[in-house]
Amino acid sequence: MSSNEFKISVLAGDGIGPEVMLEALRVLDSASNKYNFKLRLDHQLVGGIAIDQKSHPLPEETLNSCETSDAILFGSVGGPKWETLPPDEQPERGALLPLRKHFGLFANLRPSVCFPSLTGASPIRTDIIEGGFDVLCVRELTGGIYFGEPKSINQTTDGRIAIDTMIYNESEIDRIARVAFNAARGRSKKLTSIDKANVLRNGILWREIVENVSKDFPDVELDHLYVDNAAMQLIRRPKEFDVLLAPNLFGDILSDEMAMIAGSLGMLASASLGQSKGNGLYFGMYEPSGGSAPDIAGKGIANPCAQILSASLMLRYSLGLTDAADSIDNAVRSAIDKGYRTGDIFSSDADTKQVNTVEMSDAIIDNII
Fold first, then answer.
1. What is the pLDDT of residues 79-100, one digit of tens each?
2. What is the DSSP string of 198-215?
3. Residue 14 main-chain phi, psi, to 5 deg
4. How far is CA 347 from the centre of its chain?
5. pLDDT of amino acid 2
6. Residues with catalytic annotation?
7. CA distances from 112 to 46, 124, 242, 292 (A)
8. Cα 356 to Cα 333: distance, rounded to the nearest angstrom
């Protein structure tokens, strides 16, 4: 392939995944024509549809495709149809978590941006979020309670007991902390680290290692919050945060809270980054933070913005196409500023126009310059 040609594994998944993925690919096609790059797309099955057609949520050919690609563009997986399967065979545990572990995707970046013109979609009081906000959550993704062993449900004489183990070692905390500090250095130079050091031994070690790493970033202001207090302060004063650094479980919860106070999960993109490829680039998997939303699948009303913004993150962090990424980000903002809204962010008391999935993407494409 030429220097401006890249192979992308496209895993659309289930529910609204294929619908919003199609729109993201349309936006990428428009950007590629304007910015002179080419994406060679390799479409593969993942999740529930892969179970139905290949008897496994992560077929071997899908994994092989990802291994030979420059990045993974992921949709959403799961739905009621597969919820009765054994836990490890369900779409999320059988596909999403193994992909993260296989590729060492240890750093999850979730930008939560509330555009000034979208503050009416937030459940937070207007006076609190007036002017909008921009917070980046950096979540550790391959350690902690989701992956720690032992993990089991056991029968005892007093009934069943469930065991999940939260484990972090120094190197895991150090590497995610450095990602967060570097991100803060490129933003407003303020980092808030989240833990539960007043209760958990994990929190004590987490705080100690983050403090040590901070010595290499004297230009970044560091503070710490317990996770319960952080959940409250994000609602009370979201505009005062810049970068949040959190362990796996806490980051999962707080980033969804951030999405809702920003207006909708349909606006929240994410990047899961692994090993550095040099020049500030990473192999990564890019996906919207929301789920497969089977209740609206096939209705043409899903918000495609999270998938489109995830594609922009892919251009930025894995392909180094910053100008194209900026253009897509600005196009999404322009479409929002001009009043285009899917149902999840629509407000009848504002000067807005409710549109469907394709119409929202059309408005974004029209603003790519």
1. 999 999 998 899 988 999 899 9
2. TT-HHHHHHHHHHHHHHT
3. -120, 175
4. 25
5. 64
6. 146, 196, 228, 252, 256
7. 26, 14, 10, 19
8. 17
Which domains are present in the chain?
A: 1-106+272-369 (3.40.718.10), 123-262 (3.40.718.10)
* SS3 state at 150: coil
Structure tokens at 28: 């990428």
- The confidence score (pLDDT) of residue 1 equals 57
Residue 166 neighbours by CB distance under 10 Å: 18
Tell me the sheet residues that pair with 135.
112
**Can you tell me the distance from the alpha carbon of 286 to that of 304, in angstroms, rounded to the nearest whole number?**
14
Name the pTM for this structure: 0.89
CB atoms within 10 A of CB 355: 20
Residue 309 CA: distances (Å) to CA of 193, 329, 358: 25, 7, 15
Query: pLDDT digit string (tens) for 266-310?
Result: 888 999 999 888 787 899 999 998 889 999 999 999 999 999 999
DSSP single-letter state for residue 85: S
Q: Which amino acid is at 18?
A: P
One-letter amino acid for residue 49 of the chain: I
Sign of CA dihedral 194, 200, 204, 206: negative
Give the pLDDT confidence of 187-209 residue by residue, as tens digits: 999 999 999 999 999 999 999 99
Tell me the C-alpha distance between 245 and 57, whole Å. Answer: 31
What is the tens place of the pLDDT at every residue in 248-265? 999 999 998 988 888 888
Contacts of residue 126, Cβ cutoff 8 Å, sequence gap at least 6: 119, 120
CA dist., res. 143 & res. 88, Å (int):
17
| Averaged pLDDT of the chain | 94
293 DSSP assignment: -
Strand partners, 288: 269
**Residues 70-104, buried b or exposed e (16+ Cβ, 10 A)?**
bbbbbbbbbbeebeeeeeeebbbbbbbbebbeebe
**C-alpha–C-alpha distance, residues 9 and 3, integer Å:** 18
Cβ atoms of residues 272 and 96 within 8 Å: no
- Are the C-beta atoms of 176 and 142 separated by less than 8 Å? no
Element (H, E) at 153: strand 152-156
